[in-house]
Amino acid sequence: MGLLDSILSAVSGKSDASGEAAPLIGILSGLLAQSGGLQGLANKFSQSGQGDAFSSWVGMGENQPVSSNQIQQALGSDQVRALAARMGVDPTLASNFLAEYLPKIVDKLTPAGKVDPTADHQEGLAALLPSLLQSLGGKSGGDQSAQA
Questions:
Q1: Which one is predicted more confidently, 32 or 69?
Q2: SS3 of residue 18 by DSSP
Q3: I need a surface site. Which of 8, 17, 59, 142 has the fewest CB within 10 A?
């Protein structure tokens, strides 16, 4: 079972994408709200020395990867633990999930290549997550198989 499958199973027993997306939208919206939106999240990553990586997610080029440890440094252990509790998973699994998917989510929430402070990110998450879940949950990538 892949990482995404483990998290989705823990978050929701429902099999349809909309049922799986609802809890994740709330969790990711909460993460954005607690961080001060995308700009606040950018500041956290910048303060932890990961500003270039975050900028790559926003920009139009290739997304730089981050490790689960870098996620822990940027967000703080307390926030990762709180997020893991809301997801019903181990904090390590939550930080691995964020390391894998946060770059993709930030990238999709910033289609113009910059952070728009007036954008409704909750609406963006609601539009993004079902397709993200469908594309990631519907096929097993080589990386997921190797990690499973």
A1: 69
A2: helix
A3: 142
